Amino acid sequence: MTGTFWSLVPAVVAIALALISKEVYSSLFIGILLGGLFYAGASFSGFLDHVVVDGFIGQLADAYNVGILIFLVILGILVALMNKAGGSAAFGNWAKKHIKTKVGAQLATIFLGIFIFIDDYFNCLTVGSVMKPVTDKHGISKEKLAYLIDSTAAPICIIAPISSWAAAVAGFVTEGENGIALFIKAIPYNFYALLTIVMMLSIVILKCDFGSMAKFEALAQKADDLQDSKASGVTGNGTVVDLIVPIVVLIISCVIGMIYSGGFFGGDASGNFIEAFANCDASVGLTMGAFMALIITLIIYCIRGTLPFKACMECVPEGFKAMVPAILILTLAWTLKSMTDALGAKEFVADLVQSGASGFMNFLPALIFVIAAFLAFATGTSWGTFGILIPICIAVFPDAGDSLRIISISACMAGAVCGDHCSPISDTTIMASAGSQCNHVNHVSSQLPYSLTVAAVSFVCYIIAGFIKNPVVPLVLGVAATIAIPFIVRKLNANKVQIAVEK
Question: Lowest-confidence range among 88-92, 146-150, 451-455?
């Protein structure tokens, strides 16, 4: 089964079970067991070794993964501190006075998500912790908040030249070419990321939710308990400053941590900010930054008398417990990914693309977009998809000045983000659910209609771009279609949603 379509079956089964059963833990675990069975065959000992040793233990022993888990725990502690100190509640009260409308609350969430473009993990948890009190007070569903967070995480990072994603893409570009420069050239052709922003703004400003999101929004608006979501257990006398300062410190610390890990302060990239970002280790940088932000926050709270030291320490286990669901899902998702990797899923897709590339060059960007989306959806990783397909795009179009080369690489990035955006086993999707405290399967199912709509429009845009080799015309047509489609779908689904809400 290695190197064949069967290598993708464990991930596909896990995703299908999660969407059908609405229970993600057992679904991922079954996918892992299926991957171990495919790999080991009739050998029971081989099955156990592959699942336990190569899978769970191997993933939890990986330095990058451990760094991300530590980062999650520290962010959970920071959120617990801000809640207990009263900073989140104070910000919610301030926002209630200054953000008057539901549309305003959603736009504030989008703009904050765009502002925090450094890293998608950081974005998901920070925007969720800051904006949840605001969205709750305006009757915005957790599902809608999760969608706004998820859509301003990877889609924003993939068009931000100074981000961990830009660094990752640059790392996959070989042959001496400047990876960051190539990344910047590809931004105008990243139709999925750009049109996702348009979709968000359209459904918020024009108030035209559709699919299951419309149902969740209607139910949230009716729920009385959402109007009183002030954090329980507040023991401090915090103000808005006690929320804003830790967040600003966290952003600055994470940026410094990332460029430090990239050799900015005395390493190979000494003094070169862009090169340091291109060489950074996001896991190490974010963990360093989070540690520094935690220490500074504790000092500030104690000096200001916002929260007693003992109460601060009580937030440590509270923050850890809050992140347990996200950590468990991430561990299962990483292990499932290791199962598909061992079965040769990447090699299977790479061979598939290379064998069919020569026959239809102008359609290749659209084809790469679809394959990248499917691969990222099945494996739950965008960066792994970059690593597979970007070198193939470079090999197919060796001329650095070829427009199709840039379009195809951009299609690869856009497709990877699309698949990552849709996949229930994607770490970014998981953390968007965690940041909004939303049921994970509800987040995936409510976001899917929006993501698939943008994906379909992007696919057409890549067909057009493959022939005219210019981003302006397909982008203009894509924006028009992205704004028009929600109106049409809303009218078609209006009666169905109303019946579902009444039930």
Answer: 88-92
**How far apart are the C-alpha atoms of 145 and 433, rounded to whole Å?**
9
Q: How far is CA 412 from the centre of its chain?
A: 16
pLDDT at 341: 82
Per residue in 314-351, pLDDT tens?
999 988 887 787 788 778 878 887 888 888 876 776 67
Cβ pair 142, 187 in contact under 8 A:
no
What is the four-CA torsion angle of 168, 185, 187, 381, rounded to 10 degrees?
-30
* 500, 213 Cβ separation under 8 angstroms: no
Phi first, then psi, for residue 20 (nearest 5°) are: -80, -50
Closest CA to 19 of 424, 447, 476: 424
Side-chain half-sphere CA neighbours of 80 within 13 A:
20
Quick check: 139 and 221 in contact, CB under 8 A? yes
What's the N-to-C CA distance of the chain in angstroms? Answer: 46
Tokens, residue 241: 């400053």
Type of residue numbered 362: N
Instruction: Please write the tens of the pLDDT for every residue from 159-180.
Output: 877 665 766 676 566 554 556 6
What does the radius of gyration of the chain's CA atoms come to, in whole angstroms?
A: 22
d(CA 63, CA 60): 8
How far is the C-alpha of 433 from the C-alpha of 421, rounded, in Å? Answer: 12
Other CB atoms within a 10 A radius of the CB of residue 392 amount to 20
Going 117 to 122 to 124 to 129, the CA torsion angle's sign is: negative
Q: What is the 3-state secondary structure (H, E, C) of 189-231?
A: HCHHHHHHHHHHHHHHHCCCCCCHHHHHHHHHHHCHHHHCCCC
**pLDDT recorded at residue 178:** 57
d(CA 363, CA 365): 6
Q: What is the DSSP string of 306-351?
A: SS-HHHHHHHHHHHHHHHHHHHHHHHHHHHHHHHHHHTTHHHHHHH
For residue 147, what pLDDT is reported? 92
Query: What residue type is assigned to position 96 of the chain?
Result: K
Res. 498: pLDDT tops 60: no
Q: Please state the rounded mean pLDDT for residues 21-50.
A: 86
- Render pLDDT for 411-438 as a digit per residue (tens, 0 to 9): 988 998 999 888 888 878 888 888 888 8
Instruction: List, in order, residues 6 or more apart from 480 with CB less than 8 Å away.
Output: none
Cα–Cα dist 8/443, whole Å:
23
User: Tens digit of pLDDT for each residue in 110-126?
Assistant: 988 887 776 677 677 77
Q: What is the mean pLDDT of the chain?
A: 81
